[in-house]
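Action item from last week, closing it out:
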Amino acid sequence: MEDQNREKTPSEAKDEWLQRLNDFRQEFLSLKGSISETWEKLENELRTLIEQAPQLKPAPAGVSGEELEELEKVLKEIDKGSKQSEILNSLLHGVGRYYQRVALFVISGQDVVGWLAKGFNTEGVPTGRAKVTLPLSQNNILHEVNTRQSTVIANPEDQPDNNQFLERLGEALPRQMLAIPLFVRKKIAAIVYGDQGDSLEEITMVPLIEIMSKIAGMAIELLPLRRKLAETPPPPMPPEEAKEEVEEEIKEEEPVEIAPSPEAITEEKRKVNEEAQRFARLLVSEIKLYNEVEVTLGRKNQDLYQRLKDDIERSRDTYNKRFPTLSSTTDYFHEQLVKILAEGDESALGMQE
């Protein structure tokens, strides 16, 4: 008993810290290795697409060399975004170079929700934040994009509910309309809309807008991977009594593997719980990152679970498979849902008991 309560010697404290440091490095290398293949593939594809944009041969019909150079600038701005909102803003700014009115609609369950608009001056759709919510089942150009899963150029009369859709946007009746899907993880997450207002100009530069949308989707997919690599947690600090003794040794030697002692059972449980908490936090943070608009609406309407059910259940299954022994005792995943998605208000999840 006395031996358990006695203070550690500097040498023992140093050995314990070295073991913790080694565990930390192994865990970080494992995490980095698990995501590096996906990260490198996406990064390489994104870099290639951006670099090749100004050299497209043959250039898309009606697209000049100067326009391709401008495209490269837009793509680089999109790629710089460190948040989903920054990426989408850069995308809409780029699309706005070619059309008098542009808007971004986010798929939210069975609805499409206006997220951002430029060029509209009506009360319902001011320049800036859009204020339009429409059922996805309404037979208009947005519905057509979602059905075809591809770009649609249409006249107002092509879909029976286009006039109702256009009335929500303003008084102008455009000659043509353009709607392009933005895919994230192989699903349409948003729809980019553009028209020329009440002018007689036609829709042009469609291939460039499609490239912008593709790059924006890829940039959003890369966000969590980039954060994982950039936000390396700091290693454990050595105890003060062993700090000076350890500093020189760390500079000269790589840490060696140290077998856990028989008395480390409690410590191992603590590590498992800490890892489970970190993993749950990572999973839920990714849900929030990919669904910023859905999260905002879900908090307001207290139906987060219903809006994000597929993502939540997929992530919960991943968590339970990694920590099967904890799922029936301490639900760290649910705790992070409340903390991160619902900002501490469990009722915002809208989950029935």
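Closing note: The mean pLDDT is 75.
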